[in-house]
Amino acid sequence: MYLVSAFAIGLVFGLGLILSGLTDPAKVLAFLDLAGSWDPSLLFTMGGATMVAAIGFRLARIRPAALHGGPIRLPVAGTLDRRLVLGSVVFGVGWGLAGFCPGPALASLATGLSGPLLFVLAMVAGMGVFELAERWRPGRSKPA
Questions:
Q1: For 57-85, how does the pLDDT look when each residue is reduced to its tens digit (9 = 90+)?
Q2: What single DSSP character describes residue 141?
Q3: Which spans are transmembrane here (predicted)?
């Protein structure tokens, strides 16, 4: 049942990204172009997603377990540090240059176009570089 619900949730999420236009890099770049021909339509998508998430988080706080019986792991507020700020900047620059972020890029793979594929490959490579850098970070034990 867990796999069926995970698939259904992913499918609804992907369809929502497609219907909202978040899988179209031109629309995303027009949204990010505040000084040019700004397209504010994605604000409605982001606002709707924020409201749905707020309701979901509110419900999660009062439930003893997830619907499939597993534990509910809510995020905890952390500190605003250099790594978080730099990661946010890198994410934002990548989004602004490519017009993709991870979710819409994965949904866009269904188009068969090379742009989303190249983005996803670069994203996976970046994740690999991060993992390697984490293993060699000072203060951590070296990998065997």
A1: 999 999 989 888 889 988 887 888 888 89
A2: P
A3: 40-60, 84-107, 113-133
pTM of the model: 0.71
Which structural domain range is residue 90 located in? 2-135
**Could you tell me if residue 144 is inside a domain?**
no
* Contact by Cβ (8 Å): 58, 72: no
Q: Residue 99's CB: how many other CB atoms inside 10 A?
A: 23
Q: Is residue 115 part of a domain?
A: yes
- Residue 104 maps to a domain: yes
Q: How many CB atoms are located within 10 Å of the residue 9 CB?
A: 10
Give the span between the Cα atoms of 41 and 32, in whole angstroms: 11
Distance (Å, whole) CA 34 – CA 19: 23
Distance CA 15, CA 8 (A): 11
Distance CA(99)–CA(93), nearest Å, equals 10
